[in-house]
Design brief:
Elements (H helix, E strand, L loop, with lengths): L11 E4 L19 H10 L5 E5 L8 H4 L2 H10 L6 E4 H5 L7 H20 L4 E6 L8 H17 L4 E6 L3 H9 L6 E6 H7 L3 H4 L6 E6 L1 E2 L5 E2 L8 H10 L5 E4 L9 H13 L4
Parallel strand pairs: 1-2, 1-10, 2-3, 3-4, 4-5, 5-6, 6-7, 7-10
Antiparallel strand pairs: 8-9
Length: 278
């Protein structure tokens, strides 16, 4: 399937858990019983890219945590699926800067282990969410995050750290520049920006730091919805990404099917992107 489109089968992937039933019916959770089946379904539906996800709720069942990396490698090769990025929702659910010293150390050691195993899997981008429960609310919390990531950059040489943040657009650029490293960038989430009411035109100033793009549609202060049904101005945002010659991946982090018709729903969203006049 060869295409000259800006977004095509080669650079449009999906977030793990979007093709199979979700644990506890969460919108995003590692599908511990179905993760191998999902890789098979990905191949069946002509996806070649998937972003792995890590949660605290079933962390020990996740092969990225329990060290069963060879099993992941075997199945991703079998079904010809690339895993270039990982979203660490564990970081969001266990915001280390909210815990006391003993528990904080335990959380940080877990993050180090996850990054170490990500390098073994040859993952390029490790996405750290600074939203919802891990939203930064003070200069002290920001300082703690910066200090931790700088330690990660020293300890691990192959991985790149991307932040997904709810910072106001004018603050994002200043935050990224504090790291003074080309191994730190931004994971842009189009739906979250719409949910927060941010004007994408104000976000353009930091788009050169975007290394991974979560395609999502949300209503203002509302839930994730099918692409085209929310307040995300995807066409204009993607046109700008094309203008600046963005060459990295797009990940469908779209709404799940309420009727558990997950393959159908993901393909509806993918086709929406393919049919946009970008």
């Amino acid at each position: 399937m060869v295409s000259k489109r800006f977004i095509d089968f080669k650079n449009l992937g999906f977030m793990q858990g979007r093709l199979v039933n979700s644990l506890y019916d969460k919108i995003q959770c590692f599908p511990q019983k179905n993760w191998i089946k999902e890789l098979e379904l990905a191949k069946k539906n002509n996806f070649s890219i998937m972003e792995w996800t890590i949660n605290s709720i079933n962390l020990k069942k996740n092969p990225l945590f329990n060290g069963n990396i060879k099993k992941i490698i075997f199945y991703k090769k079998k079904f010809k699926i690339k895993i270039p990025s990982i979203t660490c929702d564990y970081f969001m659910e266990k915001a280390f800067f909210k815990f006391k010293k003993k528990e904080r150390k335990k959380i940080i050691n877990t993050i180090f282990k996850l990054i170490r195993n990500s390098e073994k899997l040859k993952v390029k981008y490790f996405v750290i969410p600074l939203v919802d429960n891990s939203s930064i609310k003070s200069p002290q919390q920001e300082k703690m995050v910066i200090q931790l990531v700088k330690k990660i950059l020293i300890k691990f040489k192959k991985i790149k750290i991307l932040f997904e943040t709810d910072y106001y657009p004018s603050k994002v650029l200043n935050f990224i520049k504090k790291f003074k490293s080309n191994r730190v960038g931004i994971n842009y989430d189009s739906g979250n920006s719409a949910n927060l009411g941010y004007n994408y035109k104000e976000e353009l100033k930091y788009f050169k730091y975007v290394k991974n793009f979560h395609i999502k549609d949300r209503r203002y202060k509302g839930k994730t919805v099918r692409l085209g049904q929310g307040n995300t101005n995807l066409r204009e945002i993607l046109r700008y990404m094309k203008k600046i010659k963005y060459k990295n991946n797009f990940i469908l982090q779209t709404a799940r099917s309420k009727k558990k018709q997950h393959e159908k729903e993901l393909n509806i969203n993918r086709n929406y992107i393919f049919n946009l006049n970008i």
